Every structure is written in C-alpha cells, then in structure tokens.
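We were asked to recover a plausible sequence for a given structure. The inputs and outputs are reproduced exactly as logged, with field labels preserved.

PROBLEM: sequence recovery
POSITIONS: 184
GIVEN STRUCTURE:
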C-alpha cells in the first residue's frame, strides 16, 4: 500500500499514519478493504430509559437530600410548638431518610440490574475495527545469527596472582630507615 498523499510505500496495512508525511491512513485502509466504497455504519438506537441500578441510586440520593431539608424543618416546628407529633415525625423522618437513603443506594448498586449493552438478537456487538489488508510483517528484534560459532568460554583469570602496587609512603619510609642507620 502506498500513501495517497506523498506516495511512500507502507510496510504493512496496520499502520495508521504515513511514516514520511504523517497522513492518516485509516480511511484509506477502509476504502481498500471495501472495494473503493465507504462503509455505511448504522447508528445505534438511542434509548433514554434509565437502568434500574441508576434509578435506585437516584432515589436513594433524593431520600438523603429530602432528609437534609425535612428533618431540620420538622425540628424547628417542634421547637416553636408544643405538639408532640412534630417530635415523633422528626425522629421518624431522620431514621427513615438518613438511614433509608444510603441503604436504598447500596441495594441498587449491589442487587439491581445495570445498563444493557447494545445487542442484536441477544448477542453483544463488538466495536468496529478497521480490517487488516494482510498479515502484519513480524520483524525480529535481534539480527540473524552469525555463521561463525562464538569462541569457547574460559574462566576469568585469578586476580590474586597480580603484583600489588607499592605503597605511596614506602619510599619515604626507606629514606628514614637509611637516615637512622647512618646516625647509629
């Protein structure tokens, strides 16, 4: 395959961009695979229906939000009036809304069915990938083996046999020894 923009020959049909000019080749690959015609993709039917899981989580959130608004309002009413009914309603609303809301969200998240994937006759439709024109060429990372065999292995040399370098202070020590011998 050649790049339609600059004419550079491409190594394989899997490359997405031209190696010389950077032209995107995905459309070209699809054109060649479909005999020069653009493929027609059908749009997935859009559904506005909310999944039961999402609906349950929303309901739990609304209960919790309602508790944030309703419980303080009932508490204020109970404080300004001497009716015991408002005290009972405040306690009941706080228990139902602050505990029931998160429990409803938890139940929906664990037990209710989530969103469905687009299907055709009960089977999942995988995302469309551009077809390959031919099998990709596999290039080895290492060069081919040489004809000559590698030299045989030999153990490392023993470094204990090497001569140690003389000490830096050795010369000075000899001179001092000579001076002390002369004085005696």
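RECOVERED SEQUENCE:
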């Amino acid at each position: 395959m050649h790049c339609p923009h600059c004419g550079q020959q491409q190594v394989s049909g899997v490359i997405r961009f031209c190696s010389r000019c950077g032209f995107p080749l995905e459309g070209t690959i699809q054109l060649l695979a479909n005999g020069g015609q653009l493929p027609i993709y059908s749009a997935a039917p859009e559904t506005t229906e909310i999944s039961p899981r999402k609906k349950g989580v929303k309901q739990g959130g609304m209960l919790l939000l309602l508790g944030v608004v309703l419980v303080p309002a009932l508490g204020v009413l109970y404080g300004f009036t001497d009716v015991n009914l408002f005290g009972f309603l405040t306690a009941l609303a706080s228990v139902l809304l602050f505990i029931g809301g998160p429990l409803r969200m938890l139940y929906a998240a664990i037990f209710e069915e989530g969103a469905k994937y687009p299907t055709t006759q009960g089977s999942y439709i995988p995302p469309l990938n551009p077809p390959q024109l031919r099998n990709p060429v596999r290039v080895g990372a290492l060069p081919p083996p040489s004809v000559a065999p590698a030299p045989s292995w030999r153990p490392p040399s023993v470094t204990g046999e090497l001569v140690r370098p003389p000490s830096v202070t050795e010369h000075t020590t000899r001179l001092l020894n000579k001076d002390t011998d002369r004085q005696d």
